[in-house]
Amino acid sequence: MQTMNTASVLIADVHPLIRAGMAALIESDGKFTLLGQACDGQQAMEMCDRLHPDLLLMDLNMPGCDGVEAIGRIRAQHPDAKVIILSGHDGEDDADRSMRAGAHAYMLKSAPLADLMTCIHAVLQGKKFMMPELAVKLASRIHGNQLTPRERDILMHLATGMSNKVIARAAGIGVGTVKFHVKSIMSKLNVCTRTEAAMVAAKRGLVHLN
Question: What's the pTM?
């Protein structure tokens, strides 16, 4: 809880080095009080319930709970808490889903520390924040063609290397229907091959492959 112009902060990230770096940054600024660190989504939610931070710095991709789901649950339980997503992915899909779920900002882990501090201060002042390059991507996406839920499902299968026949069996549809959707997907992604579609999808955050 924010007191005497000092904002309380909780850090949630799967990587110990990232958590340590964020903790050092927060503790070096007298305007913040570090409440603790969480290593997964479930722990982040539990610590929010117990500590009631003013600000949560959270990795989007953590074990224990989907990041977008965690954002929604945390914001529902703690509507006054501010959430900043720190991600290693510059895909506009991840940024869009995060902001729609209730995050106040989406920052890349590769961003300069000065930009992160600017983001933190802006969010604590009640503003939304997004890196300019991601904002441009999102604007382009809004005005462009978006994939349907069925196309997203097929794209996920396609990205794992499945053939049209296998995708049809997994999705419970005909091979001809799969071919139609694959053609539509490649057109919307502006690619010519299935490999290119998988690469573009991964870069944009439309699919996440290990």
Answer: 0.67
